[in-house]
Design brief:
By secondary structure, the chain is mainly alpha-helical. 75% of the residues lie in helices and 0% in strands.
Length: 277
């Protein structure tokens, strides 16, 4: 799977996420939100800053109008799908969680969303592990496995073989591998108890980052809405800094860990190989 193919899949995934969220939020609501923020008659057109702030205000209000239980459920199911059955290569659960977190109001909703996403991630990872344990070779040899590419399967197996539990933890933050590792672990010598022991802290850290940033960005926007003309820029800046930061961290981790994916280890996923600089 080349870079262009992965990029195309990612774009398709984001488009799918937007479509799913839009449908679940009711298309009429979203259209009404943007209509409310649209410029008025000719000669009355607001500045870009005003348009951006009004659009964000309408969009966030629309998302918030969905019942908290529904938003929380969507986020939990979204991340479950991302971390299981290789759906993570298509469904961008991170986008769904980030969108849901912008509607959080108060500590109860915040904690509920955290728990839903963490539980969803752990269930998804567990499903992936079970599939690998019972059907791993069949999945790898299937048409879907072939579309993913033998190179990615080999890299995932080598990485797990050489890094053990560390690979399980770090892979949660790496593209492609975060979907392949659970199935790969299921095909390895690693026990479920050891696997989930490394998965829990990674899922907690990931969830805290996404839910907290989304909640903070939307909260800051609402606090500044009546006091700052360019409140929309604040929201966009927070999200942009976070996204760029995540991309940089992923790139750094990919480069740092790449050398562990090129060669197989001793065949035991419970051990960590001696590292060669």
């Amino acid at each position: 799977m080349g870079k262009k193919s992965r990029l195309f899949r990612k774009l398709c995934g984001y488009a799918l996420a937007v479509n799913v969220v839009t449908e679940l939020l009711s298309g009429d609501l979203l259209n009404a939100a943007f209509a409310a923020a649209a410029p008025g008659p000719a000669g009355d057109a607001p500045s870009f800053s005003t348009w951006l702030t009004n659009s964000l205000d309408s969009l966030l209000t629309t998302i918030q109008s969905v019942h908290p239980a529904v938003r929380t459920l969507i986020a939990g199911v979204g991340i479950l799908l991302e971390t299981s059955v290789l759906v993570g290569l298509v469904v961008p659960g991170d986008t769904i969680v980030l969108v849901a977190s912008t509607a959080v109001m108060g500590p109860v909703e915040y904690v509920a969303l955290l728990l839903a996403v963490i539980v969803g991630a752990l269930i998804g990872e567990s499903i992936g592990f079970a599939l690998g344990r019972y059907f791993g070779p069949r999945i790898r040899d299937s048409k879907l496995g072939a579309r993913i590419g033998e190179k990615h399967w080999v890299r995932a197996a080598n990485y797990l073989d050489r890094r053990g539990g560390i690979a399980v933890f770090i892979s949660r933050f790496l593209p492609v591998l975060h979907s392949l590792i659970p199935i790969t672990v299921g095909m390895s010598t690693m026990s479920y108890r050891r696997f989930i022991g490394w998965t829990i802290p990674a899922s907690v850290i990931w969830t805290l980052a996404y839910v907290s940033v989304g909640t903070f960005a939307a909260g800051s926007f609402r606090d500044l809405l009546s006091r700052l003309h360019g409140a929309g820029y604040v929201f966009v800046a927070i999200i942009a800094v976070f996204v760029v930061g995540i991309l940089l961290i992923k790139k750094i981790l990919e480069r740092r860990e790449a050398r562990h994916m090129e060669h197989a280890g001793d065949g035991d996923a419970n051990t960590i190989e001696d590292l060669v600089p």
